[in-house]
Amino acid sequence: MFKKDFPYFQNSKTVYLDNGATTQKPKSVIDSQVEYYETYCANTHRSNFGHANKATQEFEKTRVLLKEFINASKNEEIIFTKGVTESLNFIASSFAKDFKTVIISSLEHHSNITPWHMQGRSLGNGLEVVSCNDNLDFDLEHFEELLKANPNAFVSITHVSNAFGKIHDIKTIAKLAHEYGAIIMIDGAQSLAHFKVDVQDLDVDFFAISGHKTFAPTGVGAIYVKEKYLKDVKAYQTGGATIQEVDYNHSTLLDSPYKFEAGTQNIAGVIGFGKALEYLNYVKYENIESIEKNVFKFLDEELAKLPGIVFYNDTKDCIGSRSFNFEGIVHDDIGILIDKMNVAVRVGHHCAQPIMKKLGIRGTIRVSVAFYNDYVDVDKLIEALKKALSMLKD
Ligand code: PMP
């Protein structure tokens, strides 16, 4: 129903089911890039002529839109970054650097693991991992034990697992974390494309956002920082547009968000991000949720009929993707074969090697859906999987 809004689907026959990696962009987002570069290309927050002012206004409009979109309380709480990876690295290397203990979940993407390793942390040595059961459910009891044993920890947890679609109950996790004096950051890379996020309702302290996984251009994202922590977050890079005054001995920084947005920003990307949010406001989450529910119902029924299929978790508390293997078949081979049939899914470890190792596998076949996918896409996927399976079994 919404494919008509996405030029990619007019230009390509590909059945696109790799939305967990990146989403397609609606025409309004693409047009905004051309419009900026062709009609008012100028830098923001510096010069004071017409196009520079327009660029600044459009850029700042996205901040207000994003603040409203996730129900932050102040514009200053929204800091633009390149994406979730930069958001997590920023907070890890500034605010969270000196915390004695960092607690993560078993289902983290590498971008919420490697920044902690770069600080010399390892399991039991400044880094703790909350275990999960055989269904990949977050172990709340273990989490509480870790919080008790490590008071005032920094908790950094993914909202939705990109590898298995598992949703973490962030409201409960954040409440528990706060009860033990911990501060909590959420990797929201896989949330906003599928459901409403309200940072005040979740009561999280930091929330990392990816533009390109939310129908916006690549190279743009944000970090929400709860107002009460803004003064304690140190800028991890400084330079142009971050300062109040500089002499050869000293510099004073501006207030948030500007002190955190060093150098020329991805201006077109941020403007495009605003258009993506406007588009999502037009589509509405209630429609997204009902479309995805129906598509997943059909997908689950059809996948279950395929011989030898192996899942690693049930579909309860799962959103955005299904991850599986076929007994005796290498997942990469399926990926190569169905690509020849114009079906795009991701095969591999999905940047989540630790959980793959825990499961004793190298990776999975991941089908990740967005609201523009439909029953026809599922039919084509299933047909391609059947053909690939029969070729590989011969
Ligand atoms: N965390 C998760 C859960 C992800 O799925 C991804 C992207 N695959 C990232 C972090 C990195 O996000 P970005 O591409 O915005 O840096």
TrEMBL record:
<comment type="function">
    <text>Catalyzes the removal of elemental sulfur and selenium atoms from L-cysteine, L-cystine, L-selenocysteine, and L-selenocystine to produce L-alanine.</text>
</comment>
<dbReference type="GO" id="GO:0031071">
    <property type="term" value="F:cysteine desulfurase activity"/>
</dbReference>
<keyword id="KW-0808">Transferase</keyword>
<dbReference type="Pfam" id="PF00266">
    <property type="entry name" value="Aminotran_5"/>
</dbReference>
<dbReference type="InterPro" id="IPR015422">
    <property type="entry name" value="PyrdxlP-dep_Trfase_small"/>
</dbReference>
<dbReference type="InterPro" id="IPR016454">
    <property type="entry name" value="Cysteine_dSase"/>
</dbReference>
<dbReference type="InterPro" id="IPR000192">
    <property type="entry name" value="Aminotrans_V_dom"/>
</dbReference>
<keyword id="KW-0663">Pyridoxal phosphate</keyword>
<dbReference type="GO" id="GO:0030170">
    <property type="term" value="F:pyridoxal phosphate binding"/>
</dbReference>
<dbReference type="InterPro" id="IPR015424">
    <property type="entry name" value="PyrdxlP-dep_Trfase"/>
</dbReference>
<dbReference type="GO" id="GO:0006534">
    <property type="term" value="P:cysteine metabolic process"/>
</dbReference>
<protein>
    <recommendedName>
        <fullName>Probable cysteine desulfurase</fullName>
        <ecNumber>2.8.1.7</ecNumber>
    </recommendedName>
</protein>
<dbReference type="InterPro" id="IPR015421">
    <property type="entry name" value="PyrdxlP-dep_Trfase_major"/>
</dbReference>
<feature type="domain" description="Aminotransferase class V">
    <location>
        <begin position="15"/>
        <end position="381"/>
    </location>
</feature>
<dbReference type="InterPro" id="IPR020578">
    <property type="entry name" value="Aminotrans_V_PyrdxlP_BS"/>
</dbReference>
<dbReference type="InterPro" id="IPR010970">
    <property type="entry name" value="Cys_dSase_SufS"/>
</dbReference>
<comment type="similarity">
    <text>Belongs to the class-V pyridoxal-phosphate-dependent aminotransferase family. Csd subfamily.</text>
</comment>
